[in-house]
Amino acid sequence: MKKIIIIISLILIPISPTSSATLKEALIQAYNNNTELNAERENLNISKEELNISKSNYLPSVTLSGSKSKEETNKLTNQSGGDATITDVDPTTTSIKLEQTLIDFGRGADYQKNKIGINLAQIKLLKKEQDILYRAVEAHTGLILANEKYLINGSNVKLLERQVEADKVRLERGQITISDLAQSESSLAGAKAKYIEANSELLTSKLNYENVIGPISAADSLKKSSKAIGEIPKSVNSAIELAKTNNPDLIIAKLEYEQSEKDLSIARSDLLPTSTLTLERSYTDDLSATYDEKEKDVLKATVSWPFYSGGKNRAKVNKNQNLKTRKRLLLDNEIKSNQTSVASAWSNLQASESFLNSVRAQVKASKIAYEGITAEYERGSGRTTLDVIQSNSLLLNAQISLANSERNYLLSQYNLLKIVGLLNSDYLKLK
After folding, report:
1. Element holding 283 (H helix, E strand)
2. So what's the pLDDT on residue 90?
3. Bridge partners (DSSP) listed for residue 274
4. What is the pLDDT of residue 10?
5. In sequence order, what are the beta bridge partners of 21?
6. Could you tell me where the beta strands, DSSP code E, fall in 90-150?
7. How far apart, in whole angstroms, are the C-alpha atoms of residue 119 and residue 170?
8. β-strand 61-68 against 293-304: which pairing, if any?
9. Given CA atoms 237, 240, 244, 246 in this order, what sign does their dihedral have?
């Protein structure tokens, strides 16, 4: 009897991962090595080059060109019917052309649009950074939870295996019935199924960890966290105010609206004239048998005004006006939904904290119940082995529920930081 009690009590020993790899270390690893994040960093470089391209519209262009041809004519007939022969026409022509745009009402708007584009790329990078860091938190805590479940269920299987063997002995002695043994065997079968499921979940969680964060040797090398690295807003109102200036989705909506204004200006510029100034110098050697060399300088000013294009340019203006209106409506909607998202995240944080406290109380009560039933079993006060196993099972389920609740509480903290716009390397001091 005491042997059974000792075996059962083994499952109550707290199982925690070895303190080795912290959540902050995992976040640093994800920040530096995640391929999605690195790809978004390249997008920022692309935006910078787009700005350089638009800068070039203000600068002159210089074109160098050259040509060489060979022509042989053996016999020619002039207007009087006589023959003339030019045996060799071998011209070589070189030229340099300088072209400067004087008037282009769209290049300024294009330049401003690309300046906004850099800011937009930076914010999109920040948004991707937030997404990756939150996924890293999910992966880290998920692997710890999966490992806890795996260990708890593994210990439960060992316990029930020993319990079945003990019940077989008791059956031979006539202390229990065949149905009592069947109940123990049924509990063991169920425990094995949960153990297999926990093992599968552990493998999946490990793969997800490596995909988001990077390689890991063992799940039990992770250290469990209870609080977020960064400071959490003290109230829902302060969270809403922080989100107004830091939420990436809100900032992206504002910048996209500003870009739509520039697109409209660019479209309107297609209805206006443009002007260019061109200076070209060319030199031709051995032009003909008569003239050996020729130099030519050309200075040309050009004014172009699209008078009619089948309505295409006017339609482009109308299109971009509609796009601007759409971006304005999307911005207004984002402003409204942002407050709702922050309030929801704050409410979820409070609810997860309250639920965590309730589960802690449940674990405490389940432990007291288990200890009481075990004591009654020892005294022979009518409690059966099955009663002890069931009470222990309730305690184990409560412990798993506690592990889930602790993870959810931590995730709700990071989710609030993400919604507010503070889940980044600077705020978390990952650099």
Report:
1. strand 274-285
2. 63
3. 304
4. 37
5. 222
6. 92-103
7. 76
8. unpaired
9. positive
* SS3 of the chain: helix, strand, coil, percent, to 5: 65, 10, 20
**Beta-carbon contacts of residue 147 (< 8 Å; ≥ 6 apart):** 17, 202, 205, 219, 220, 222
C-alpha span between 317 and 264 (Å, rounded): 6
Q: pLDDT digit string (tens) for 58-100?
A: 888 888 887 776 666 555 555 565 555 555 556 678 888 888 8
pLDDT at 14: 38
Q: Distance (Å, rounded) from C-alpha 344 to C-alpha 419?
A: 10
In the chain, what are the domains?
2-16+23-67+89-423 (1.20.1600.10)
Query: Kindly report the CA angle at 146 between 145 and 151, in degrees rounded to 5?
Result: 100
- Alpha carbon of 49 to those of 118, 122, 418: distances in Å? 9, 14, 30
Cα 397 versus chain centre, distance: 34
Dig out the tokens for 274 from the structure. Answer: 């443009």
> 288 — phi, psi (to 5°)?
-160, -175
Instruction: Tell me 221's DSSP state.
Output: G
Residue with tokens 């965590």: 356
Residue ranges for the chain with pLDDT beneath 70: 1-20, 69-91, 286-293, 377-378, 380
- Residue 295 pairs in a beta bridge with 283
Minimal CA–CA distance to 282: which of 292, 295, 300?
A: 295
| 300 burial level (CB within 10 Å; 0-12, 13-18, 19+) | exposed
- How many CA atoms are closer than 13 Å to the CA of 72, on its beta-carbon side? 1
Helices 178-212 and 385-420: angle between axes, nearest 10 degrees: 20
Distance CA 154, CA 3 (A): 19
Nearest Cα to Cα of residue 54 among 327, 270, 262: 262
Rounded to 5 degrees, what are φ and ψ at 15? -110, 115
CA torsion through residues 361, 364, 366, 369, sign: negative
b/e sequence 87-105, b meaning 16+ C-beta within 10 Å: eeeebebebebeeebeebe
DSSP string, 56-88: GGGS-EEEEEEEE--B----EE-TTS-EE----
Q: Residue type at 418? A: K
